């Protein structure tokens, strides 16, 4: 955008030079054609509205499976993810979940469960996505696995606060993640380093679940919990595939994620 | 905001007059204290971000039941509802639903169903809410009933386009609404006037369903459809209580509605 403005600016400048019999009139004032700034703003505003609308469609689960973010929304999503927007949304969902958790009367039989997803729910892969176009690049599982193996994903702070709260309230915490079983050790190491101090189950995707949609895998795992007598009272995840399907939680909390989609 | 700016502007002006030995220096340039414009923008931007975040929480179903919109977001929601934002979101959800409908192979046995909610899905009550603070006033069922009885709610155009499309594709259309049975005739009249040309069932809330949550009422009605052998392939509604619960549709489409919440 800045480049375009500069280009137009210099175009007028050069036309001033080449055709005007008084190439440098005093005072030297070079004006945009009337209203051109307004047009830029309108274009910016329209694009911003379109990208906000796309993001809402993501968060309301209205979109068909998508593989990359819209190219024209790259700047918008970068601003959202690295600015106040993402942080604010994370804080709000954590707060709402906490308010809900507080209202529940737990039965103290060790069967009240809160489920957390891991990636973009407890741990942030934003440092990876900053280097990979915020979801503009097609997902590269090999590169992403390398990042996971570093075990340096930071905590999502508002989620850590919720985590502490539901632990203190007496919930059992089950971590249910699409990460592969082979990443168990590094995942434990990363979670611990990021401040997540204890959990009751860490369920990763074993060999027998390869190739299943996340919705199916997670629904099966939740159904097993229910069969074992657990009550799933809360569920936090950044993907609708964390939340929808069989044995859904009494209440689900959708964390924002405009960077990728897992069916 | 403008008044405040003018006030500050004239405050500086008058102080220039009263204390300066050269009341009208040349050139006459009156400056805001450094950064004051930036502060105004920051305040505006922060509020806008907060209200966008609230709207995101509504659309992702993260909020506890709420009765009125946040007071500070009135201007934001008014702008959204009457500007391009709402329109854009309606168009997107209609388009996405249409794309999905096109991909389905219907079985031509008359059992493929698309469910539509009515208020804020097919018909717009925006003219009513414009007069009632865009959701800032507590819902008044008597006043709202009077509005419904006028039968003048306009069509939501993108929904009408989707409606036509799914009809043409051969779906059965079931209208499932929380409106009371006593409004059946005026509802038919209003729908017809707004251009909705035919449907296969119009299910309103009868006396036996009074006092039930919308989620329960609608889940029961969907379950009956499934028992009768219908396949619910699509469901369009502006409330999560239109979409969640038993016998959920294969895919659901959440229309935007930041003005009110029905549990």
Word description of this protein:
The structure is a homodimer of 263-residue chains. Chain A is an alpha/beta fold and 263 residues long. The first copy, chain A, folds into three domains: 27 residues, no CATH class; 41 residues, no CATH class; 165 residues, HAD superfamily/HAD-like (Rossmann fold), CATH 3.40.50.1000. Helices cover 48% and strands 11% of the residues of chain A. The first copy, chain A, contains ten helices and five strands, in the order ααααβαααβαβαβαβ. The first copy, chain A, has a five-stranded parallel β-sheet with strand order 3-2-1-4-5, with helices on both faces. In chain A, helix 8 links the parallel strand 2 and strand 3. In chain A, helix 4 runs parallel beside helix 7. The longest helix of chain A has 24 residues. Chain A is globular and about 70 Å long. The two termini of chain A are 35 Å apart. The N terminus of chain A is likely disordered.
State the largest interface.
Answer: A-B, 29 and 29 residues
Work out the count of structural domains of chain A.
3
Radius of gyration of chain A: 24 Å
Detail the poorly predicted runs of chain A. 1-27
User: Could you give the order of the helices and strands of chain A?
Assistant: HHHHEHHHEHEHEHE
If strands are numbered along the chain, what order do they take across the biggest sheet of chain A?
3-2-1-4-5
Largest sheet of chain A: 5 strands, parallel
What's the rounded overall pLDDT mean of chain A?
89
Net shape of chain A:
globular
Number of helices of chain A: 10
Task: Name the CATH architecture of the largest domain in chain A.
Answer: 3-Layer(aba) Sandwich
Oligomer: homodimer
Q: What portion of residues of chain A belong to β-strands?
A: 5-15%
The CATH top-level class label of the largest domain in chain A: Alpha Beta
Question: What is the share of helical residues of chain A?
Answer: 40-55%
Question: Could you give me the name of the CATH homologous superfamily of the largest domain in chain A?
Answer: HAD superfamily/HAD-like
Q: How many E strands of chain A?
A: 5
Provide the CATH topology of the largest domain in chain A: Rossmann fold
Distance between the termini of chain A: 35 Å
């Amino acid at each position: 955008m800045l480049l375009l403005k500069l280009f137009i600016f210099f175009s007028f400048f050069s036309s001033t030079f080449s055709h005007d019999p008084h190439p440098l009139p005093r005072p030297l004032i070079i004006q945009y054609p009337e209203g051109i700034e307004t047009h830029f703003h309108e274009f910016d505003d329209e694009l911003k509205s379109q990208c906000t609308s796309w993001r809402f469609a993501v968060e309301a689960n209205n979109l068909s499976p998508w593989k990359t973010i819209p190219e024209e929304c790259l700047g918008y999503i970068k601003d959202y993810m690295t600015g106040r927007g993402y942080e604010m949304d994370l804080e709000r969902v954590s707060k709402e979940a906490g308010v809900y958790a507080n209202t529940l009367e737990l039965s103290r039989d060790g069967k009240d469960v809160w489920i957390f997803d891991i990636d973009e729910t407890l741990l942030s892969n934003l440092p990876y996505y900053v280097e990979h176009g915020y979801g503009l690049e097609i997902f590269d599982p090999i590169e992403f696995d390398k990042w996971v193996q570093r075990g340096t994903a930071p905590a999502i702070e508002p989620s850590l606060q919720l985590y502490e709260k539901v632990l203190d309230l007496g919930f059992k915490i089950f971590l249910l993640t699409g990460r592969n079983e082979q990443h168990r050790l590094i995942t434990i190491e990363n979670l611990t380093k990021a401040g997540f101090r204890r959990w009751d189950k860490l369920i990763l995707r074993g060999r027998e679940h390869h190739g299943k949609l996340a919705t199916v895998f997670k629904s099966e795992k939740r159904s097993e919990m229910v069969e074992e007598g657990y009550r799933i009272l809360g569920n936090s995840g950044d993907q609708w595939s964390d939340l929808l399907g069989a044995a859904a939680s009494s209440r689900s909390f959708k964390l924002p994620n405009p960077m990728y989609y897992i069916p």
